[in-house]
Design brief:
about 300 residues, alpha/beta, 6-stranded mixed beta sheet, 5-stranded mixed barrel, 7 helices, extended
Length: about 300
């Protein structure tokens, strides 16, 4: 507490003693080194808003009020399946034509970053009745059902038909690349999202479909993604009326500007294109051509998966 009548504090290490006097440094303004009551949050002002996801600094603010607990929404429970006879789980024997399932583990890691309780329900084989049964069995005990694969138009893509047989499909296909085949529906009152089987498409659609859904189910405020302007270091052509996400790495150009370099290979199945890049350049529906030197919007992976 300040002594009665005092309004300024000189730090001990900044003063010197000369005989029986204390010499104070010049230039200190009245009120320096003082923390008035209520300077951080005045009485009557909200400290944290409803719908806010608690960050470490928010937890510190709660503690600064002397609180030991606050009301929060419980963790969202998500059931995760992969689908397809072509998949084997890591650690299992893999037949020659099979691939090890990677999507399921990527999605579970992304869900964990969003604070979800995740149920790993393994791989569902290409059987419509079994798929319908598995989805129906877990609908009542989870807040969201999430699958990857089986949402395209092949003969063994059964997810769309399975959802329609036990619930209601509300969306199928989106005008984005990578990630066109996306299914959304309701099964027994529980939201369902079916993501594409290609890993990059699964990643992109998770960011733009699953993440906002998780936030909405949590009662959290929707956080609009704000692309950072960077300079394109590549040429790229795309179709009109479709949003596209280009995998890029950032580099510092000779003039000091941040420049985006496109990953050298295409393909929605290239996990290396997610590992060896820094984020995505977002190209709107009206864009048909990107040329070197043009300003584009960059979304870092850090901003997309937190």
């Amino acid at each position: 507490p300040m002594p009665e009548g005092a309004d300024t504090v000189f730090m001990q290490e900044d003063v010197r003693v000369e005989g029986d006097k204390v010499v104070l440094p010049a230039g200190l303004k009245p009120g320096a080194n003082v923390r008035p009551a209520g300077e951080d949050i005045p009485a009557g002002h909200a400290a944290l808003k409803a719908g806010q996801r608690l960050r470490p600094q928010d937890v510190a603010l709660v503690a600064a009020f002397g609180l030991t607990q606050v009301d929060v929404v419980r963790r969202i429970r998500v059931a995760v399946f992969s689908t397809g006879n072509e998949l084997a789980s890591p650690g299992e024997a893999r037949a020659a034509p099979q691939l090890f399932d990677s999507n399921r583990f990527m999605l579970m890691a992304m869900l964990a970053r969003l604070g979800c309780d995740v149920s790993d329900l393994g791989i569902l084989r290409d059987d419509r009745a079994a798929l319908s049964r598995a989805l129906q069995d877990v609908a009542g005990t989870h807040d969201l059902l999430l699958t990857t694969g089986g949402v395209s138009t092949g003969e063994e893509d059964h997810v769309k038909a399975s959802v329609e047989s036990i619930g209601r499909l509300v969306l199928w296909r989106m005008a984005i690349k990578p990630g066109r085949p996306v299914a959304m529906g309701i099964i027994g009152g529980t939201p369902f999202i079916g993501l594409p089987g290609n890993p990059v498409a699964s990643f992109v659609t998770f960011v733009h479909v699953v993440r906002p859904t998780i936030l909405a189910l949590s009662g959290a405020m929707q956080e609009k993604l704000l692309p950072m302007p960077v300079r394109a270091g590549f040429t790229y052509r795309k179709k009109i009326a479709r949003r596209e996400y280009v995998r890029v790495s950032l580099r510092r150009a000779a003039d000091g500007a941040l420049e985006a370099e496109k990953f050298p290979r295409e393909g929605a199945g290239l996990l290396s294109s997610l590992v060896d890049t820094d984020g995505l350049v977002e190209l709107g529906e009206d864009v048909t051509l990107v040329e070197p030197g043009q300003m584009v919007g960059f979304l870092s992976y850090a901003s997309l998966i937190s």
